Amino acid sequence: GKQWYQRRVRGVLNYYTNYYYKSNLRVIQKLKMLAARLCTRVAVARPFIQPLASATPVFAVRSFHATPKALDESLEQASKFIGAGCATVGCAGSGAGIGTVFGSLVEGYARNPSLKTQLFSYCILGFALSEAMGLFCLMIAFMILFAL
User: Fold this and answer.
1) How far apart are CA 106 and CA 104, in angstroms?
2) Are strands 62-65 and 41-44 parallel, antiparallel or unpaired?
3) Which end of the chain is more exposed for a tag (fewer CB within 10 A), N or C?
4) Which DSSP symbol is given to 115?
């Protein structure tokens, strides 16, 4: 019974891979677990072809089930993480904007030192606007993670 199934699986593996495995049982077990992970509902129970002498399955039924509710929750959680990650990309833009603002302040001060106070006020305004955009991005990311 069980040996026939192992020989059948071994033959199919050898046919499709053209490679003879030393530990066929371990490979079969790994392939079963991989198939169970890839599919939402898998019942690994029957051999490819039933032996003629027996109408019952050759070995015990082992089934892996994932409920639709658990799948929906995990998909929703993954979507939240992806959305929050996309929202935080704006924080990098905010950092680049702040660097550009202060770089321009230094350049403007080097060109005309007499405009120091006016340039500094413009610099603070640019810094505040750029920082606000970064904080808005961060706020959206936290809202996606914890409020939705």
Assistant:
1) 5
2) antiparallel
3) C
4) G
